[in-house]
Amino acid sequence: MRPNVWTRTLVSVTAVVGLAAGSLATAGTSFAALDTQPAVSSDVSVLAVNNLGLTSAEAKKVQSWLKEYWGYTGAIDGQLGTNSWKAFQRCLKEYWGYTGSIDGVVGPNTIKALQRLLRNYGYTGAIDGIAGSGTKAAFKRFANA
Fold first, then answer.
1. pLDDT digits (tens, 9 = 90+) for 102-145
2. For residue 82, how far is the Cα from the chain centroid?
3. 97: Cβ–Cβ under 8 A, 6 or more apart, which residues?
């Protein structure tokens, strides 16, 4: 009877080792397949609306100002999209040191110029191109002025 117990144990251990090896082999090929995928997609889309913390009502005030002074022709809908930011970039280029293209992208250069403008609305932080809480609070004061 003893030889049967050892045989069963040996068969069981062999089966477990075989399953584990098969799982590792499969995992290895699945990881290898993942490695062939690009780390970054080339289909990157720009955020269509960026209110920088403004409510819809506040963004409408900004859009009305942009329409009156900076050639904004879109809807006054409370959504600061590409066309709103293009108009804002025209203002920032004229008076606040924005040197980028008028593309409607709210990138670091747009934010830096906006931060310079927002010095007049209580912004005291660094001109760093990061839309942090101080930038957003000053932008709200600007919108409500």
1. 999 999 999 999 999 999 999 999 999 999 999 999 999 999 99
2. 15
3. 112, 113, 116
